[in-house]
Amino acid sequence: MTLRQSSDMTKFKECLNKAKEVVVLSGAGISAESGIPTFRGAGGYWRKYQAASLASPEAFRNNPSLVWEFYHYRREVAAKAEPNAGHKAVADFEAKNSSSKKVTLITQNVDGLHARAGTKNLIELHGNLFKTRCTKCKEVLVNTDTPICEALANRGAPDSTVVGSDIPIKSLPHCKKGSCGGLLRPHIVWFGESLDPNVLNAAEVAMSTCDICLVVGTSSVVYPAAMFAPQAAQRGAIVAEFNLEPTPTTSEFHYYFEGPCGKTLPIALNI
């Protein structure tokens, strides 16, 4: 590291102004400010289940009804949430600099708030709550229906006294393409699954050529995204972290700005 870690906003803005390729790498922290549960750490429970235990192919095979209740709850929460000032700052920065900079947003979030804020050049590493994938024909479709099927209406509340799910599998969302009829699943990259190679490649290309990277609301512990910013810093790109508190990789970056993204990003991006 040639520069000491700094919280000098003026110098950061000078670097940002000179940059031709900018990458914003966002995580759960920015959406937490819009009321989206992070499902990480001690509070990462839905009912009596640790959220991670429901976000796997095995969980879906064993109890698709329970997993769909969990994801229906997440869809409802995300649908009611609004993009905050942090989301909007990134989208506005992209729009205002479209002729002079290439701005790419790589997000680990699945809530769709960046797109709703207006971001165009968006890479969603882990999928999207409002997309489904057929387990039979593999077709991926956008689906914003509320509820996604009648059987899930008024279901999915995080009530710790509720155990399991009694929704018949035939009543869950199914593919409507021709005569397929396959069971639909959320188009989410679950634990134990690999990222879409095309999505991962697009992210790696952006990270390999950016002049500056903003790490926003992510603890940098989920791989492979956890290596993106450290690798960029190692090759000489300027990396600035925006988080509520330091993370394991903070010391590897040039700049660190502490506080809610909804307050620090608008200042940093001149919004």
TrEMBL record:
Domain Deacetylase sirtuin-type, residue spans: 2-271
Broad EC category: transferase
Catalysis performed (reactions): N(6)-malonyl-L-lysyl-[protein] + NAD(+) + H2O = 2''-O-malonyl-ADP-D-ribose + nicotinamide + L-lysyl-[protein]; N(6)-glutaryl-L-lysyl-[protein] + NAD(+) + H2O = 2''-O-glutaryl-ADP-D-ribose + nicotinamide + L-lysyl-[protein]; N(6)-succinyl-L-lysyl-[protein] + NAD(+) + H2O = 2''-O-succinyl-ADP-D-ribose + nicotinamide + L-lysyl-[protein]
Known EC number: 2.3.1.-
HAMAP family given in the database record: Sirtuin_ClassIII
Domain characteristics, as noted in the entry: In contrast to class I sirtuins, class III sirtuins have only weak deacetylase activity. Difference in substrate specificity is probably due to a larger hydrophobic pocket with 2 residues (Tyr-71 and Arg-74) that bind to malonylated and succinylated substrates and define the specificity.
Name the UniProt record assigns to this protein: NAD-dependent protein deacylase
Organism this protein belongs to: Danaus chrysippus (African queen)
Record lineage: Eukaryota, Metazoa, Ecdysozoa, Arthropoda, Hexapoda
